[in-house]
Specification:
The chain contains nine helices and three strands, in the order ααααβββααααα. It is mostly helical and 203 residues long. The protein folds into two domains: 30 residues, no CATH class; 163 residues, hpI Integrase, Chain A.
Length: 203
C-alpha cells in the first residue's frame, strides 16, 4: 500500500495524473503478534520426556495446570501448597495473593517430587542440584531443553506454557473473571485476548 501510494504521488508530482487514486485510502493496521500456544501432543511429549525427572516433570505440570509466571514458580514455597483443597497460593505482581486449584496430575507430580527433594533449609519448592532455590534463568533453560528434545520448532518458553493454560481454559468455557483471577491480571482486557483465542480454537 505504501509503495503504491508513493508511486501515484510521484505521477501526480510530475504532472502525468491530476489526482492520486490512493487519496483517502487508509493504511491497514499492523497485525499484532499472535500468542504462541502448544498443542496437546506437543506439551504431552515434553511431559513424557521429563517423566524420569520428578522435579522437571513437576515444574512443567505446575506451569500447565496453573498458568503462573516463571517468577511466581521460582518463589513458590512449600507452605504455599495445600494438598487438602488442593491448591497453590501464589504471590503475584504488587504482592497480590491468589489461589489456583490443582488437578490430580499436578498433585501427584508435586508429591512425587517432594518425596525425593534434596535436603535444604530453603522453603522454596523447586531447588537446583546444590539444594539452593532454582533461578528463573534455570527454569527457562529447563523448558527450552524439553522443547528442543520434543522436536518443537516454535519458540516455546515459560510464558508459552502460561498462554497454553489460559487458552485451553478459555476453550473449556471458563469465565473471563475466573481466568483473570487465576492469571493475576490487573486488567480484564488482557484476559479477554485468551477468551478470543479460545473461541477461535473451538471454531
Amino acid at each position: 500500500m505504501s509503495a503504491i501510494r508513493e508511486y501515484f504521488r510521484f505521477l501526480e508530482g510530475v504532472g502525468l495524473i491530476t489526482k492520486s487514486p490512493t487519496t483517502g485510502i487508509e493504511t491497514p493496521k499492523r497485525e499484532k503478534n499472535g500468542r504462541q500456544v502448544l498443542r496437546p501432543d506437543e506439551y504431552t511429549k515434553m511431559l513424557s520426556l521429563a517423566g524420569a525427572n520428578p522435579r522437571d516433570y513437576a515444574i512443567l505440570q505446575v506451569f500447565l495446570q496453573t498458568g503462573i509466571r516463571v517468577s511466581e514458580l521460582a518463589h513458590l514455597n512449600i507452605e504455599d501448597i495445600d494438598f487438602i483443597k488442593p491448591s497453590i497460593t501464589v504471590q503475584g505482581k504488587g504482592k497480590q495473593e491468589r489461589e489456583i486449584a490443582l488437578e490430580k496430575k499436578g498433585i501427584h507430580a508435586l508429591k512425587s517430587y517432594l518425596a525425593v527433594r534434596v535436603e535444604s533449609f530453603s522453603p522454596r519448592v523447586f531447588l537446583n542440584y546444590q539444594g539452593e532455590p532454582i533461578s528463573e534463568r534455570g527454569i527457562r533453560k529447563l523448558v527450552v531443553k524439553y522443547r528442543k528434545k520434543a522436536g518443537i520448532t516454535k519458540k516455546a518458553s515459560c510464558h508459552t506454557l502460561r498462554h497454553t493454560f489460559a487458552t485451553y481454559k478459555a476453550e473449556k468455557g471458563v469465565s473471563p473473571f475466573q481466568l483473570q483471577q487465576w492469571l493475576g491480571h490487573a486488567n480484564l482486557n488482557t484476559t479477554q485476548i485468551y477468551m478470543h483465542l479460545g473461541k477461535q480454537n473451538v471454531k
